[in-house]
Design brief:
By secondary structure, the chain is an alpha/beta fold. Helices cover 25% and strands 22% of the residues. It has two domains: 168 residues, Quinone Oxidoreductase, Chain A, domain 1 (Alpha-Beta Complex), CATH 3.90.180; 148 residues, Rossmann fold. Helix 4 links the parallel strand 9 and strand 10. The two termini are 33 Å apart.
């Protein structure tokens, strides 16, 4: 067992894009669990777009000079409660640190499904997948045979939305992304029919070319011009699911997105946003829907895996620049962590790689 622990603290508020200088790694003695708690050694961490919002001076935001929060999966290595045994694998929200002291009320035991890696609980079976599932089934109420447009389609929520939509019987699936390479992945691997690079021209023109007959539903992770384009492209009684506004994450003072409000009335459109935290009661339903397809191979998790906790800040900053495809996850050890992690090799994992100054992968969970 390690004798020390590492945590990540935010040291300053960013103005625009954050940098490594806004963070610090802090080493401290290994924490000891108190009565009624356990010590968890983290194995996998999720870095998410919403963390960028929490970096600002906002209610509920990160506290400067304190350990940051985030989703994590780890193993109980010391227990002082009969409710959790050593060796159990748990999900909790004290990420951005190598070790965490948590209570049974602060964790969720993870079911173990044959053939499903632990990384899936931070991607397609985690908050990312639940966001996509809720957006399609509860907010949009996607019907078989409808056409769907997804902005930021190569991100974690975008890829999960595309894959789930195929299982739900979508007819034409259209997406936007930030590079030709990502567009190729989406059409070859994820099941999109048409994908455009938003750098190639006006968003409205590009969407009209990709979906000349319009669409019934849009899952929007971007806002701004992409939202305006979606409003124009929607058919009568169309629905927009608002997941995130990544076009404004680093420019909080930018004016709000503009679109033709007359279209909303004339076409009887519905625009609705949501927070996935209000839908945790659907977690088991997501398992029932997705796990059989994961086990059969009909469904895959799009993940970019970065090895080593020491690279968690780099992984986060890389995600903000769009240097990932699918959900980005940080893994404690390159070859896994013993026999347990040897069974958790991520589905379709890739290494973090540079793709230029892109922001198409930002999706809010």
């Amino acid at each position: 067992m390690n004798e020390s622990a590492l945590t990540v603290h935010q040291t300053a508020r960013p103005h625009g894009h954050p940098t490594a200088g806004h963070f610090a790694f802090v080493e401290s003695p290994l924490p000891a669990p108190v009565a009624g708690s356990v010590l968890v050694e983290n194995l996998y961490w999720s870095v998410d777009p919403y963390h960028r919002e929490l970096m600002d001076d906002v209610p509920g935001g990160f506290v400067l000079g304190a350990p940051l929060e985030g989703r994590a999966v780890g193993r109980v290595i010391a227990s002082r409660t009969p409710r959790l045994a050593e060796g159990e694998i748990v999900f909790h929200r004290q990420g951005w640190r190598t070790h965490a002291v948590v209570t049974p009320e602060e964790i969720r035991r993870l079911p173990r499904f044959d053939g499903v890696p632990l990384t899936a609980y931070l991607s397609i079976l985690g908050g990312t997948g639940l966001t996509a599932y809720v957006g399609l089934t509860r907010i949009a109420r996607l019907r078989e045979g409808e056409d769907l447009f997804v902005s930021a389609a190569a991100g974690g929520v975008g890829t999960a939305t595309g894959r789930f939509a195929r299982l739900l019987g979508v007819r034409r699936l259209v997406g936007s992304t930030g590079s030709a390479a990502k567009a190729g992945h989406l059409t070859r691997e994820v099941g999109y029919d048409a994908v455009f690079d938003y750098h190639d021209g006006d968003a409205g023109d590009l969407l009209r070319e990709a979906a000349p007959d319009g669409v019934d539903v849009c899952v929007d992770n971007v806002g701004g011009e992409m939202l305006a384009a979606a409003v124009r492209a929607l058919r009568e009684h169309g629905r927009i699911v608002r997941v995130g506004t990544i076009s404004q994450y680093n420019t909080p003072d930018a004016p709000p997105p503009r679109f033709d409000h007359a279209d909303v009335v004339e076409k009887s459109l519905r625009i609705e946003g949501f927070h996935v935290r209000d839908y945790h009661h659907l977690q088991e339903e997501l398992y029932e829907f997705a796990v059989p397809h994961l086990q059969s191979g009909r469904l895959a998790a799009d993940e970019t895996v970065v090895d080593g906790f020491e690279h968690i800040v780099d992984a986060f900053l890389g995600m903000l620049r769009g240097r990932n495809t699918g959900k980005i996850i940080v893994r404690a050890h390159p070859a896994g962590d013993g026999a347990e992690a040897a069974r958790t090799a991520s589905v379709g994992e890739t290494a973090l790689r540079g793709t230029g100054d892109r922001q198409d992968n930002l999706t809010s969970e």
